[in-house]
Amino acid sequence: MRGSETLTENDFDILPNEKRHIDGRGLAIFYNTLDIKNPKRRMLLLMLAVAYYEAFQQINENLAEVLENPNNVIKIQDLYAEASIFNARYFFFNPIQLTKYPTYKCWQDFSEAYQLSIKYRETNEQLEQVHRILSYQKQEKDEISKREQLELRQEEQYQLEQAKLEQQKSSDRLNFKIAGFGLILSLFGIIEVIDTLMGWFK
Question: Taking the model in full, what pTM does it have?
């Protein structure tokens, strides 16, 4: 025996039909009866507790992996969605009816041994915080992008108006020249008419 690694009788919870010890390394059960149904139920509950624990571990590992490239918002949103689906479909704080008290108590012990409530809360808080931060950053980037696009459109509009104004000025100058040329021609025409009329009266 290895001293501190060895289970002693004091480590076991003594219940009417069984002695039970659960920790992160496994489960030990001693039954007073030959009924095999209860041990099977305990094993199923233990497997469920381990599955929950592993699921939370996997989500945390995936989150750490995704955060290596925090600009990949889509992957983080996908992970957030997966975790939300897992929580909604598969995770139950109490998968046992309260009326089945010995089994319910056993589940409570398993949940406490694997710290499922703490893991659940920590995992979801981390996901929420990351999702909130990235959503805020994305919103800021979108707003900056919208502002830049608006400024670009305003600049394009200004350039277009300036070009139209320049074109109008150029057109006005040309019209002024044509009008001036027409006026000069008109003066020459009036002079010629006067000259012709004076020739008639002589």
Answer: 0.57
